[in-house]
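hey so u asked for the seq, here:
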Amino acid sequence: MTWNRTSTVDDVPVDPYGDAVASAVSDMLAAAVVEVVYSPTDGAEAPEHEPPWPAGTASATAPGPPGWQTTLCVRLDERVARLVSTVGRSTYLAELLDVLPKAGLAAVEPFRRPGRAPQRGAVGPAMRRALRDTVAAEVLGAYLDRRVGGSVTTGLVADTIDFLIELSGTRVESHDLTHGVVVADVLHDAPRLDFAYPADVRTAKRAPLLFDGRRSVLLVDPRGRARTELQRHRFQRLVPGADLADTGDDHAFGGGSLVAEATRLFGGVGFLVRDDRSIWTFVDGRPLLVRRGEHWTAFPLELAASIENMIGGGSVAALVTQAAFTISGQPAGAILAIVDDPARLDGVVPLKDRYDLRNEIDPSAMRTETRLHHLIDAEELDAPTLVRLATLDGATVLDREGRLVAYGAVVTSADSQHEGARTAAARTLSETAEVVLKVSVDGDITVFRRGAVVTTLLGRTTS
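ran it, structure tokens below
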């Protein structure tokens, strides 16, 4: 987490609420630096962050502690910011950046007590959790407002999140629950029954099992009324010609492909409770925020964009990022690498681990590991297959076009005395590869390039 507090005058006020919201926003977007700027309300000094801001920066201002106003500024890492400033690139990041400062200040406002200065330590763990959930609700509410014309019932998103958090710690009929819901403005006729979501669903223990988010999702309108289910094989009921029976990939996006596709077709915001107790949210057909370990994190599409920038383009960046993110939610580690020229792996990755050279080895001289390559179906590599291979011991290597070069590869490290074997292997491999992602068992994703760490993100924090 990267955030700091400054002031336009010599004094910086005590503001544990500002600290908590800065931490929550920083948690959410790993590629950003968050700054809380205080200025006296008497107008003696104006905030430093006046428009126009540099590319990759957004801010919002609201009342702060008594006698102060607060400006929350979110600034992207310079390399990622270049992606936002490029026409037609990373609109995902641009919108999230625009929403975050306003959402953070809106979230903290109800926690402040008018006219009463906060005391140090006033924000305990329970309040921090509540504030993190409130920031997420404000972000998702802003996205939903933009997609349905601002007609959303007050509290719908916050109530939905509260219900999903409750579900994430529940078992029904010995099942680990999953549940999918999409809030979208699709059906405009008056419903025959007024079935409020989530209030009326709370009392129906079977509801999460009916709308599991993988075979069926519940469609809710912006007024908070449950309208109908959307089954994977019956999307054409609302969108003629749409049929996910064959094309839906239930492993994509943590098993949330059905919810993701629903948001792509119908707009709105989708929610999925996974059986690992995480909560995934979707907008425009792709993940937006994910709640794990009581913390919310933006799906690292900025990482995909940054990797794409590092390697000079290619579809492999999104594939590798999705796989790394999926693995980070499992009790498993991995090394994922992208190479420009597979020939550079000679002497770095053993021949027996080279999937791309499997047909060039004399069958009579093949080792058992090489024979296994001929049984693997990875000609057209997808995320589920990549995740499966990458969680084996060793490194998984792809070329810039997303073709599998090696898996389970043993990378000999020059020195792992002062760091773990996986870290040492990733660092060594990054001296040859264009970029390397190391996923730790704890959920961190560390990016290596040219033998050095570029960034670390996405740890499964629990505090």
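The domain at 139-298 is CATH 3.40.1700 (YojJ-like (1). The longest strand covers residues 32-40.
lmk if thats what u needed
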